[in-house]
From TrEMBL:
It comes from Thermoleophilum album. Keywords: DNA-binding, Transcription, Transcription regulation. SUPFAM superfamilies: Homeodomain-like, Tetracyclin repressor-like, C-terminal domain. InterPro entries: DesT_TetR_C, DNA-bd_HTH_TetR-type_CS, Homeodomain-like_sf, HTH-type_TetR-like_transc_reg, HTH_TetR, Tet_transcr_reg_TetR-rel_C_sf. GO terms for biological process: negative regulation of DNA-templated transcription. This is Transcriptional regulator, TetR family.
């Protein structure tokens, strides 16, 4: 009689068989869940290793430190959010459609990646984390400012101060909206998109006109003083 044991056909693949990329993705998924639940300061490599079902040594083979692992998560999910917003802003011709689409794309990201959203907006004392999130905000604001400039016949590569001001207000507004939604998830995304769009667009058109007018007037006033 054979003593060889058959492996169950429904058994999960051995982690030893995972490719380097798949193993790294598994570790990052486990780390994301731990960071979202415990925060950066409250999480440890040991907790992440237990969540992933691996040793701490294996995690250190892929990430030199907890800091590097957290930064990689911020970069990965920050790039995803940025890409979604960029597509939403450029896929529509009118400013109204682009604005509504960007709000909806943002809320869809929050809905699909709640743990990622939590770590992106979490308060951390580590300077590198704060700088990474700040750079993400700058890039997104730049995308919005370029779209505003293009909508008003300007140069997307050289948005006015007014364009930048309105863009920063938009980014700050949707960030606050995302934070609110995490504590009020019963509100449907579609409904929240329409409410946010109405509130923003109601005042945005006149605000953009005033801001752009003032930014255009500023250089002439300065030249008049010379």
């Amino acid at each position: 009689m054979s003593t060889q044991r058959d492996e169950p056909t429904n058994a999960p693949p051995s982690r030893r068989r995972l490719s380097g990329d798949k193993r790294r993705a598994l570790l990052m998924d486990a780390a994301l869940a731990v960071f979202a639940e415990r925060g950066y300061e409250g999480a440890s490599i040991g907790q992440i290793a237990r969540a992933a079902g691996v040793s701490k040594a294996l995690i250190y083979e892929h990430f030199p430190s907890k800091r590097d692992l957290h930064l990689e998560l911020l970069r990965r999910h920050g790039r995803e959010l940025e890409a979604r917003l960029q597509r939403a802003l450029v896929d529509h011709h009118s400013p109204e459609e682009a604005t509504r689409s960007a709000i909806d794309a943002f809320l869809q990201f929050v809905a699909e990646h709640r743990d990622a959203w939590r770590i992106l907006v979490a308060e951390v004392h580590e300077p590198a984390m704060r700088e990474e999130v700040a750079r993400l905000g700058e890039r997104i604001a730049g995308l919005v400012a370029a779209r505003i400039a293009a909508s008003y016949g300007g140069d997307p590569a050289r948005p006015t101060h007014g364009d930048e001001l309105v863009a920063r207000m938009f980014v700050g507004g949707i960030e606050a909206l995302g934070k609110w939604w995490t504590t009020h998830p019963e509100t449907p995304r579609e409904r929240l998109t329409e409410i946010a769009f109405d509130l923003y667009w109601e005042g945005a058109a006149s605000l953009m006109e005033r801001a752009r007018s003032r930014s255009r007037a500023t250089p002439s006033r300065r030249r008049g003083r010379q």
